[in-house]
Amino acid sequence: MAMAQREIELKNPSGLHARPASLFVAEANKFQSEIFLEAKGKRINAKSILGLLSLAIGQGTVIKIEAEGDDAEQAVAALCDLVASGFGE
Amino acid sequence: MSTVYRGVAASDGVAVAKAFVLDASEPSVERVEVADPEAEWARVEGAIAAAKEELEALRRTALDKLGESEAQLFVAHAQMLEDPELTGQIRQVIEAERVNAEWAVKSVIDTLVGLFDALDDEYMRQRAADVRDVGSRLLRHLQGSAGTSLAELAEPVVLVARDLAPSDTVQLNPALVRAFVTDIGGRTSHTAIMARSLGIPAVVGLGDITARVESGQVLAVDGTEGVVVVQPDEDELRRFSAQVEKQQGERARLAALRDAESVTPDGRRVEIAGNIGTPAEVAQVLAQGGEGIGLFRSEFLYMNRDTAPTEEEQFAAYKEVAEAMQGRPVIVRTLDVGGDKGIPYLGLPREDNPFLGYRAIRVCLDQKELFAAQLRAILRASHYGKLRVMFPMIATVEEVRAAKRELEAAKQALRAEGVPFDEEMEVGIMIEIPAAAVMADRLAEEVDFFSIGTNDLVQYALACDRLNERISHLYQPLNPSVLRLVKMVIDGAHAAGKWVGMCGELAGDPRATAILLGLGLDEFSMSAGSILKVRDVVRNTRYEDAKALAARALEADTEADVLRLVQG
User: Is B383 considered catalytic here?
Assistant: First the structure.
């Protein structure tokens, strides 16, 4: 099974608050792979909005996105693009 | 047996209808062991599907009425319902403990709420409320009580609630809600303002009326006197029905004034306009015959979101209002927020005295990029109608000059870019700080118009927090001190050839209309629901008589004396 992972810094000013978190989860759910997000020493299911929100990730935090599955590469690339775009903010 | 309750008279009118109690309390849930956990899980899945459908309907309504950022909240709620963390844990509790679906949902939600409450991030703690809301919705569907959904009202009701949140209005059908009755709040709380804008009678601040009334009981509500009668007897019913009938006759008479001019019998013409908080409210103002928008609060664009609205988003909203008003004037007030309103991305500190703190124009002159985006959006929209810009919370002449410099910079940038805007757009300030009222003659040299914000002016003049119920007797909009300040403002402006409006609560109080008219006020801006009543007074008051009345009011000793003058 394919695996992929990448680290990226969160640039948007409000961090991973409700709206960006909601966009992130929607994007993650487009993929078959299992996707995880690691930050502040915790690892959560990236398809879980509650998990994402509970991390309270602020601007400037470096997050690690990991995927396991057939579309792992594409998933990590798409989610990193979304983060890099600053969630359109 | 009837029971009479007294509260704060928040919106005029009488109504009789069955109570509809909006239950904000947590549904009660008991732990029951079950033989078939799979069947319980199937019930949860059914409830999730139903709740998601409901959220989708709410999202569409919110998108329509409130805009995209408010609608996004319902998307986040739907995502929570599908969240594997939530569903997985619920399933696990059902299977491991062999308990009923309701208990599993409640215990998982309670744990999650606790988790969010414990975070050291104020914004994240607010998410606990979202999780709680999602949990309540799920429980409601599990228990088969679609009960509290306002969208599903089928007959006229009196809405009984602890308080009404702005999001409740999304679901509300004004044609079926005959009155509001709430536990908490005062004349200036959200429920009260909304009720007046919809023209629905309201009694607020009743304490624990939600616990004393059951859905289906008949309520007679008098929003003018602040009285609620539960299960009225025949005599009371007859009396209320007669009043309702009289009110309907009065409404019909006022409705005929919709297209009438706001002019006194001896020819003094004024403008009567409406206050709005979102573009959707324009329709109500026009339906009530408003001649303009005297106050377009821009805060809605900034609230309930994670980042400041973009220039484009703001431009779209201002343009929508400018176009909908078809050449009638619209006054856009620039951002008026402070530490008492939660706008996390502005980095507003929690303050001991938020009403005397870092707020409104003070924030805008400090966070110039934020201000510039709003000024550009307003200027660009001015090309599509008759917009005016107004700065809130001005205390000094320097502040007006600084704000005008920012406006001028925005104009120059737009000119350089070749973007069209109204070069003649009028610039005004709110007069709500006594210092500004006293300096009105000097401030008038700087601007095209004033608009008196009486809610804050009264609270600053009398040093009385209008939300503090223990000193509410000191909140006196018709106190002679306030009237003297209003006179200084109007005289100062008129001497410089400028016009004066008023957009606070007092402008829409028909008891005050004759005095304000007599003081020389040029524009009255109010909740849509008051427009016709005030126009009626204007059309029936001779300007010469109003001037004499105003002169006597200025010489009164107390607010009670002033009230006797207008009622006598």
Answer: no
* Residues of B with Cβ-Cβ distance to A20 under 8 angstroms: 306
Give the domains, in start order, of chain B with CATH numbers. 3-24+149-253 (3.50.30.10), 37-144 (1.10.274.10), 266-567 (3.20.20.60)
B77 tagged catalytic = no
Across the interface, of B84, B116, B130, the residue whose CB is closest to A54 is B116
Rounded to whole angstroms, how far apart are CA atoms B21 and B8? 19
With 0.80 as the threshold, say if the pTM is over it.
no
Q: Is B278 exposed, middle or buried (0-12, 13-18, 19+ CB in 10 A)?
A: buried
Paired residues of B379 in beta bridges: none
**Hey, is the C-beta of A14 within 8 angstroms of any chain B C-beta?**
yes
Contacts of A55 in chain B (CB under 8 A): none
Structure-block tokens of residue B319: 């343009």
Quick check: A72 contacting B, CB < 8 Å?
A: no
CB-based contact (8 Å) between B73 and chain A?
Answer: yes
Q: What confidence tens digit (pLDDT) does each residue in B9-35 have?
A: 999 899 999 999 886 656 678 898 999
Interface contact A50, partner B, CB < 8 A: yes
The predicted complex's ipTM stands at: 0.84
Q: For the segment B471-501, what is each residue's pLDDT rounded down to a tens digit?
A: 888 999 999 999 999 999 999 999 999 999 9
Residue among B341, B242, B324 nearest B287 (CA): B324
pLDDT in tens, chain A (89 residues): 789 999 998 887 767 777 788 889 989 999 999 999 998 888 999 999 988 888 888 778 899 999 999 999 999 999 999 998 887 65
Q: Is B247 helix (H, G, I), strand (E, B) or coil?
A: helix
Query: Quick check: A14 and B116 CB within 8 A?
Result: no
Instruction: Answer yes or no: do A54 and B86 touch at CB < 8 A.
Output: no
Q: Which of the four CATH numbers 3.30.390.80, 3.30.1340.10, 3.40.1280.10, 3.30.70.1560 does domain A3-88 have?
A: 3.30.1340.10
Identify the burial level of B33 via C-beta atoms within 10 angstroms of its C-beta, where 0-12 means exposed, 13-18 middle and 19 or more buried: exposed
